[in-house]
Amino acid sequence: MTTKILAIDTATENCSVALLHGDKIYARSEVAPRDHTKKVLPMVDEVLKEAGLALADLDALAFGRGPGSFTGVRIGIGIAQGLGFGADLPMIGVSTLKAMAQGTYRKHGQQNVACAIDARMSEVYWGRFVRDENGDWSETEPECVIPPQDLSQLLTPSSASWISAGTGWQAYKEQLAELDLEISPGEVLYPEAQDMAFLAQFEWQKGNTVSAEEASPVYLRDKVAWKKLPGRE
């Protein structure tokens, strides 16, 4: 029996939807910072039609749980919950940072990925991942939100070569260049739903799902819920 997982992500400037059906992937993606609410449901309809499936045919619904824009994470989870409630689907939250690691492997074949998303407020959302033999990823240190100049105090020493992913590397180029890591530049700037769908398979196989009402975000910086400045989402 093939696994059928729909994934939705609006946690960053990128809006993406993907449907994994066995070894086939049907995906839509567009960088549209202000139009997530307009784009995401038509994308869902498109991938379902392309695959010849209805929501009720799916096994699970994956969503980008963050970290990312407070508004973007909230939009994605809200839409995913609505679909999950309607079709009575179990849900799987996937880290946006881990999804970028998987996207980097998909594009470059690299298995050590250092991810940094521009979190505004002079901080980055940080996560460093190593690919496991089964295709899943392990964290080198816990995901966090941190001023880039403070990262050196957090890092686990490593002699491995790493590839970068995320918008933080350009936003804080000078500060991150000071890290004691061998880093080569990568092409991945944003998470993609197709990588979330792939990663969600591992959680599905382990039974790590929640109901739609239990689906919850990971903001890392909870204070953005009340300290939201103009232009700083």
Automatic annotation (TrEMBL):
Keywords: Acyltransferase, Cytoplasm, Transferase, tRNA processing. GO terms for molecular function: acyltransferase activity. It is found in: Cytoplasm. Residues 30-226 form the Gcp-like domain. One of its GO terms (biological process) is tRNA threonylcarbamoyladenosine modification. Pfam families: TsaD. InterPro entries: ATPase_NBD, Gcp-like_dom, T6A_TsaB. GO terms for cellular component: cytosol. Gene3D superfamilies: 3.30.420.40. Belongs to the KAE1 / TsaD family. TsaB subfamily. This is tRNA threonylcarbamoyladenosine biosynthesis protein TsaB.
